[in-house]
Amino acid sequence: xxxxxxxxxxFLIFVLVYQATTQPSFIYHSCSNNTGKYTSKSTxxxxxxxxxxxxCSNTGNDSGFKPDSYGQDLDKVYAIGFCRGDxxxxxxxxxxxxxxxxxxxxxxxxKEAIGWYDNCSLRFSNRSMxxxxxxxxxxxxxxxxxxSDNVYGYGDFIRILFSSIIRDAASGVSLKFATTTxxxxxxxxxxxxxxxxxxxxxxxxxxxxxxxxxxxxxPRFGLGHAGGRAYTPSxxxxxxxxxxxxxxxxxxxxxLPPVLPPPPPPPPVLPPPxxxxxxxNSCYLGENRPTGRTKRDxxxxxxxxxxxxxxxxxxxxxxxxxxxxxxxxxxxxxxTIDEMGNVESLQFDFDIIKAATSDFSAANKIxxxxxxxxYKGKLSNGQKIAVKRLSKNSGQGDLEFKNEVVLVAKLxxxxxxxxxxxxxxxxxxxxxxxxxxxxxxDHYIFDPKKSANLDxxxxxxxxxxxxxxxxxxxxxxxxxIIHRDLKVANVLLDIKMNPKISDFGLARxxxxxxxxxxxxxxxxxxGYMAPEYAMRGQFSIKSDVFSxxxxxxxxxxxxKITSFHEGENSLLSYAWKNLREGTAVNLIxxxxxxxxxxxxxxxxxxxxxxxxANVADRLxxxxxxxxxxxxxxxxxxxxxxxxxxQNEVPLxxxxxxxxxxxxxxxxxxxxxxxYPR
Length: 677
Hints:
CATH topology of the largest domain: Transferase(Phosphotransferase), domain 1
Keywords: ATP-binding, Glycoprotein, Kinase, Membrane, Nucleotide-binding, Phosphoprotein, Receptor, Repeat, Serine/threonine-protein kinase, Signal, Transferase, Transmembrane, Transmembrane helix
Number of domains: 4
Domain Protein kinase: 360-677
Number of helices: 16
Number of strands: 23
GO biological process, one term: response to oxidative stress
Strand content: 15-25%
Structural class: alpha+beta
Distance between the termini: 73 Å
GO molecular function, one term: ATP binding
């Protein structure tokens, strides 16, 4: 009887430990320290548990995309469950349920976290994540088995194949999900299975942007490999030489090659030991059971055999449990890249850039900024690039260079310029960006001929795009960024005249509950600087708002802040005076006065609310975006803006790094120090 109770007790312990330790491990997970932490007995914790339980058990939503929120004010929690498009509802719910327990164990106190399985991902945060394209954190993974190192064009074939399904994934409505199976030009002509997917809340363009970012990395992580995966919060991509999705359950896109039947299963191969040196296989039960014993002898022998065996099993499982909780990366036949924060993966060879720009020829020079000339170029695969080459006397040293590389690589938004890579070789410092054929905004609004072709609809779209980009920097990104040098010359235009904020060399990153900082080194462009920054070195998200207000008034008027003279007025005071007197039309560019004046005057009004002398009187970017999107929101009367002369602004000669806002190269992320090759 006693032996039976002991056996039952040990069996119960075994079951509990087994259930705790058989929780599958994530392919990758990330616990963010940027949004703060919660305590185990807090309201936030209770709201999080309620929300995750609701998402994972929600049978009413079988779409595979489960966004929800719960709570109020600072304790409000947002979460998104996202399953692969071919999964059945019960499989999706099971995967999300596994994610729920694993993620809260691996990130026990963080207010923001994300984890990926093969079949699903789960993320939660104390900020809204819906309809926002986010590409960080991200994770790249590839099979170590090579396909002839691309001799037969295997890697190029994958890149082309992925490029062809981006359109189909992005154009989806209820599901932004596309798959294809086709034969590669590999030596054995084996089939390739490819999948691309975005969260369905994204717009078609945002989905394309997210997948394009992965596509740009294929030459670095997928070239010649038999399989590979890429995961971001908003999209993912995978290719293999075996069927990893339900071929029968998906509808093949009409733009892609037909789906091939799956190949016959390979012969069984014994898996390698999970951990080298483990005793897992040496603990067993029931072998060499003796026979011909009495009931009492059998019970005694069972206790003697079972108890040590269970203890052995529990010790092994306990070790595995610790291993899982540490979130160590899998050590099977996959290699990994721990986020694109490891910026070494973005490094270009100098000879490649030199060839792409025809040795930095004058014919390819498309501009010159404060830190050096900019050249256009074309890589061997036909991709057009823009290369910023830092001059030796530019004033931008290694600190600013690393700042811009790490910062722009981690920030991904349709209204921010995309960094493709960098190069450090000898004295050369190069930044490689996507090529934007329409150059910068100042080439249009300040040119009498070109400005006539930039109608109000185009200008308003540019204003809205810049506002959304700044809102992302200040509020919606994983980092809180203060740009510090926003001006029309730092707004680039793509082929559709969509604006993209550029030049992050002077940007500062703050912890998310910090909105201001100070410095002894005044950098930026006079006229766009907020007075508290220009005079005292104090900067904040509101100093970016000031710059945005100046930029708005320049776009509406077609006049430069630094060259405007109307009597003794600056552009700001002239705009305020005319708005107060009901003659704001005097500020509007002559080429625009046939367009709706009420919308332009409203933009002047919003611009003046952004350039208030008192920081507390200025709008924030969330308010700016809402007021631009709705004409029904009443606008308060602006106070007189500041009017200070350039020669009154003190020039600082020393630099003091900020305590809470600092160069991103000092930020605690997984990055590799940049050194010349």
